[in-house]
Amino acid sequence: MYRIGELAKLTGVSNDTLRYYEKNKLIAPAGRTDAGYRMYEDEAVRQIRFIQRAKGVGFTLSDINELLSIQLEKTEHSCHEVKTFTEAKLADVQQKLAELNRIKLALEKLNEACCGGPESAEHCSILQALETGDLADTRL
Amino acid sequence: MYRIGELAKLTGVSNDTLRYYEKNKLIAPAGRTDAGYRMYEDEAVRQIRFIQRAKGVGFTLSDINELLSIQLEKTEHSCHEVKTFTEAKLADVQQKLAELNRIKLALEKLNEACCGGPESAEHCSILQALETGDLADTRL
DNA sequence: ATAAACCCTGGAGTCTACTCCAAGGTCAAC
DNA sequence: GTTGACCTTGGAGTAGACTCCAGGGTTTAT
Q: Do B78 and A120 touch (CB under 8 A)?
């Protein structure tokens, strides 16, 4: 059994964040002392680890809430359901990657065209591009 | 001269967003009518276009604030300064790309290991991986 | 007993980029 | 004149994931 500060140390998640997770139904203490202190069991540690791993692969807390409810009642859910969930997240990530790649290319192009020297910014090709939109390949 | 609604239509940026930009010192009306209506000139249109392009290459409004102040007093700034700014943004984007690629790989690995069929989630390798952290190559 | 560490709650704040609401004044077309 | 579109302001809300504050109770070690 752990008090909240002990659990925070054990998991690297702050007291406040633990309370936040509880408020959002991600974790729950096993019970309370007479003084109202939260008492957590090892199950909470495992739950937090699950949350940390899921966050690590890009799931939002809202996503994780769904995964946790699936995990809680595995017999009521299928592999198909979980995989669909994960595939949607993957698609999301791929979309973000595409957007960031576009941005990267545009920034690279801007940088290549700029001398980067001590000359006055009056002649700066980056500023000019932003002013005029004259960067055909970047869809500005 | 445009009123705010006209400028909104012209640029595709909402009235509220224009006021928000004004509040954040990104744009300013040329003046006000006696009734207090904002009146904008073509310079505001150009400024908003600049903002839109800069946003399009990943700059935050805070970044854009800096770029705009450079643009305003080009003679006080160098190409070097602008390029440094853009290079920092590029590094930022590259970092995000690296992180998203890591996440993508992890999600792909999770998905590959899962049959995705109608079987009970009791045996779901995705859930198991999140529970146990048993995904060596993904640094969960 | 004392002091410090720890805990509780409710509420508010941070960050970023908007978006909405309420109340009331102004402008343009009929 | 009337009506509807338009504008103003101040303030609050959204999304998501925290983080901080104030006031007060509890536990632990000295």
A: yes
In a shared domain, residues B69 and B98: no
pLDDT tens digits, B52-66: 999 999 999 999 999
- Asked if A55 and A107 sit in the same domain, the reply is no
What's the complex ipTM?
0.84
Q: Check whether A1 has a pLDDT greater than 60.
A: yes
Please state, rounded to an integer, the average pLDDT across all residues of chain B.
Answer: 90
A26 inside domain: yes
Distance A29 CA to D24 C1' (A): 22
Asked if residue A44 belongs to a domain, the reply is yes
- The CA–C1' separation of B67 and D5, in angstroms, is 37
Alpha-carbon distance of B130 to B73, in angstroms, equals: 53
Whole-angstrom Cα distance, residue A102 to residue B139?
Answer: 27
DSSP H or E stretch at residue A32? strand A31-32
